[in-house]
Amino acid sequence: MQRRLTIEQSAEDFKAxxxxxxxxSNELECAVYLQITRGVAVRQHLxxxxxVSITMTVRPVHAIExxxxxxxxxxxxxxxxxxxxxxxxxxxxxxxxxxxxxAHEAGCFEAILVRDGYITEGTSSNVxxxxxxxxxTTPLSKQILSGITRMAVKKVTESLGIPFIEKxxxxxxxxxxxxxxxxxxxxxxxPIVNVDGKSIGKGNPxxxxxxxxxxxxxxxxxx
Length: 223
Fold this sequence. Notes:
223 residues; alpha/beta; D-amino Acid Aminotransferase, Chain A, domain 2; 6 helices; 11 strands
């Protein structure tokens, strides 16, 4: 897709702005959300002739408690009703929000989205399954958002000598997996032990998942 939003600031410019905001927030553990839009314009479906609008929020972030991670979380399957360009991180989040709310009302942490019979990702996470010592995740395409933590997991598995396979898989295959986990910036690496009321493996966080998580945390602390 052709880039149609002109951003004059460089990556270094944004890094400086983000560091300044974090320092002013006085937060030790925080999440930074950066948003770039075309700003305010008359509703006529045309690009406004004005510079882009950049906003940023810094808020305290609360890590998932060790007890919750040690027990794992539950998820549901949900039809992926999003638009065709999910690789773009946009503000068009209504389908994600509705699916996440459905999961919450079912007593679950996440909704695992399914499109044309195959798993794409979660409402705000990437999805992985472990089978026979190998990690599987959906290949990069327009149907998923390539998360930063996803890239980190790929590096971690390579460092551990664990095969990282980008391959489509079905809900039925996921339910037969030895382990399942999801990743996101705030959840990091989170075991999923039950999907749609069915236990994954032995119903506990898997050994390989936790090995990847601890190695991942080591990488973060090293940075």
